[in-house]
Specification:
5-stranded mixed β-sheet, Methyltransferase, Cobalt-precorrin-4 Transmethylase, Domain 2, alpha/beta, 2 domains, single chain, 213 residues, binds S-adenosylmethionine, 7 helices, Cobalt-precorrin-4 Transmethylase, domain 1, 5-stranded parallel β-sheet
Amino acid sequence: MTGKIYIVGIGPGASEYLTKKAIDTVKMSDYTVGSTRAIELFDDVQNRIAFNVKDLLDKLDEGVKLAVDGNTVSILSTGDPGFSGVLNTVLRLSRENGFPEEEIEVIPGISSLQLAAAECHIQWDNANVMTFHGRENIEDILPVINNGKTTIALPSRKVKDMAKFLIDNGVEPERKVTVCERLSYPDEKIVTGTLKCIAESEFTYMCIIVIEP
Ligand SMILES: C[S@@+](CC[C@H](N)C(=O)[O-])C[C@H]1O[C@@H](n2cnc3c(N)ncnc32)[C@H](O)[C@@H]1O
């Protein structure tokens, strides 16, 4: 008998942004796969399969195989699974393991991008929304950066390197930028300054960058 896979968005990190649907889904799942930090958000977890950056693919594959064997498996994704999340990877592993896509359900979560837009009072349907996370497509920002819209992006590299890249490619160093770091965590930091000033500052990898038109 085929099981079920839920790909569960857990929001930006704080438990107050978990949805009831995410909590209920994890509670009734036989197994829950996720980073240690993500699994710890849930009080009621039956069998935990924690991954780190190195064994992420192996653990996701283990989760898919457990579903092939008839189990209900929740796979946790930070923010929303469909925005730089694990959705495509889980779909691919499911195809490779012969697990039917109709037995996969995606539970949306609040993306870090949405929280950044809310913090900065941005109507994000009219913004350039981009992700460079885990990719080397940073050049894709250049054709849109001067199109008169706010750009909200997940950086691919250090925020300061991204700011330097933009300056090196002709973007005005005095352009206003906001960096939203560790959103929803107790040590959340929101810094607004010029591109030049951001290029000289240190941030962790957990940032959203908002570049004004
Ligand atoms: C693998 S991507 C996951 C994005 C996620 N699916 C989402 O919708 O937010 C991880 C990147 O998302 C951003 N991110 C995730 N959580 C964040 C938070 N609480 N505050 C700021 N940025 C965050 C950072 O750029 C981080 O490097």
